[in-house]
Amino acid sequence: MLQRxxxxxxxxxxxxxxxxxxxxxxxxxxxxxxxxxxxxxxxxTMFAVGALLPQxxxxxxxxxxxxxxxxTAVQYTAMPLFAFVLANLFNLDADTKLGVILVGCVxxxxxxxxxxxxxxxxxxxxxxxxxSATLFSPLIxxxxxxxxxxxxxxxxxxxxxxxxxxxxxxxxxxxxxxxLLSRTIKQFETFMxxxxxxxxxxxxxxxxxxxxxxxxxxxxxxxxxxxxILVLINFLGYIAGFSAGSxxxxxxxMRRALTLEVGxxxxxxxxxxxxxxxxxxxxxxxxPALYMFGCMMTGTLLAQFWSKKTLAAAAQKCDAQxxxxxxxxxxx
Length: 332
Description:
Elements: H1 6-23, H2 30-34, H3 38-52, H4 55-63, H5 65-89, H6 94-105, H7 111-118, H8 123-149, H9 156-184, H10 186-214, H11 216-220, H12 224-247, H13 252-263, H14 267-277, H15 286-323
Helix pairs in contact: 1-10, 1-15, 3-9, 3-10, 4-8, 5-6, 5-8, 5-12, 5-13, 6-8, 6-15, 7-8, 7-13, 7-15, 8-9, 8-13, 9-10, 10-14, 12-13, 12-15, 14-15
């Protein structure tokens, strides 16, 4: 139920986080209190993701490596480029610009796998893309940040190095460890298959809620320009994914999976990274938090559109077969 209505829970929890300082001014704030533990929460999320990865999906990454690497290349080329160009084109302030670029360079979201299923597309390809992008993230994300931070006056080498360490120890490491543990201990695999999605989704929801809580004043003044830029990045990502899928001559199911994967960035990861890499600049985490809402909404709508389209086509085909006259019986 949590995973099925993830968008609803995202809105509900973030709404509570947004109004908590107003409702309970001066009182205990669970979101602020949990901020020091976001590092551990982030690692738990990726550990759960790794534990949930079927062994077959790992094989698919190697078995279908041209299409998987091709899709990953599209994501790590198009999205950082869109974010970098638009952030500079509209002359955003330094913190907001860095937050937008962070949105563009993180890997695809786990939610895209769920929505790929809703869209009646190729889930195996979607999971393979997410796995590939996550494993490549320690190479791509620090490189993009190294270029982006150059414009802010920060120590870009130190930021890139910190990003690399963070992604190794909090993303790739937990994913690999969770996967190996799940493959080794059958009881653990059974437990995680039932509760892993709950742990992963609750962790991401709480991370986003904490970011919303911390930035509730900035959210009130978030301009339409920032929202418009994030929406544009999202739609350009969908277009890039669909176009690349067509260029690679992928079947319709794989093309849909690639479209959702490219457009739906792991903004929860981006928000978590921003809080750790730039603790003195809370505004950097704002664009990833906003993008999480946007891509979940547009991704859900797109997946539902494709699902209805597929069902309508199947019903039309079934009706056509029923109306087709039987062949004339052979004469004796």
